[in-house]
Amino acid sequence: MRERRKEPGGEEKIDLNARMDELAEIAGWDELKLLGTWPSPFVTRVELALALKGLSQDLVGMSDLLLASNPVHKKVPVLIHNGKPICESRIILEYIIDEVFPVDGAALLPADPYDWAVARFWAAYIDDKAMCPFAITHAMADNVHAVHFVAPWAPMFKGKTEEEKAEGIKQILAAVETLEGALKGCSKEKPFFGGGTVGLVDIMLGAHIPGVRATEVLTGAKIFNAAITPLLASWTEHFGELDAPKKVLPDVDGMVEYVKRRHAQWAAAGAAAAAASKS
Ligand SMILES: N[C@@H](CCC(=O)N[C@@H](CS)C(=O)NCC(=O)O)C(=O)O
């Protein structure tokens, strides 16, 4: 609301900050809409960043709006900020963190440019090399679902032999050990990759915690193992105690059920396709 105050004995004075807020409200500058699906870790990242910034948004499911907003990849998340779409979770995080809401809530990127570069390096490592228990590919047109994995998770789930699966697990554990080293370097003996508070890397990796836990339940493999990666094990605990993850992270049991259901659907679809090709 516009606030006016009077100078003692003077004219009515306009409070400029309140006026800016009022204009933003009229122009809809702060309208946020998040296109996403449960339990996508990429969507969860954005929800985490928004929650950590104290921002709220409407979550909108996959629809024609997705095709219109992200015609290149047709993937969620898409953040629509005042009618303008921003695609790709890491880019959305940087937009939320750096570009548009830099002073709201906690700082999520380090002030020091070198630390910032290091944080971005590990954010890319998580996406490109280390993490993605599963990502759901949703073919919008015919509603056929398939799944694609980020190496080295494919052999773990899709390996045809026990040796192939064991090799997948070995590669995942090697990536997790690399992340243990990253945490040691970035945290400077504090609990998070961001130091005393969570930052970009914590959000990127934190969104995968439920998927990792669900994978542990489904495969019996211990991925965040306190005996091998103690820093990451205590990081998951500290992270899970924060309000934003408590509010936003999907629950592990629900995820396990979801993956089982999806796997059954894909198996049935595969069997039906094989039968059709024989007839
Ligand atoms: N690199 C993308 C990955 C997003 C992604 O894979 N999203 C999945 C859901 S987990 C999706 O929308 N898939 C739809 C499709 O592939 O058709 C990001 O970081 O935003």
TrEMBL record:
Species this protein is from: Oryza barthii
Reactions catalysed:
RX + glutathione = an S-substituted glutathione + a halide anion + H(+)
GO cellular component annotations of the record: cytoplasm
Transferase keyword on record: yes
Q: Which CDD domains match?
A: GST_C_Tau (cd03185), GST_N_Tau (cd03058)
Q: Name one GO biological process term.
A: glutathione metabolic process
Q: What is this protein called?
A: glutathione transferase
Q: What InterPro entries does the entry give?
A: Glutathione-S-Trfase_C-like, Glutathione-S-Trfase_C_sf, Glutathione_S-Trfase, Glutathione_S-Trfase_N, GST_C_Tau, Omega/Tau-like, Thioredoxin-like_sf
What residue stretches are annotated with the GST C-terminal domain?
112-266
Which keywords appear in this protein's UniProt record, sorted alphabetically? Answer: Transferase
Q: Where is the GST N-terminal domain?
A: 30-104
- For this protein, what is the EC number? 2.5.1.18
Q: Which GO terms describe its molecular function?
A: glutathione transferase activity
Q: Which Pfam families match?
A: GST_N
Matching entries from Gene3D superfamilies are given as: 1.20.1050.10, Glutaredoxin (3.40.30.10)
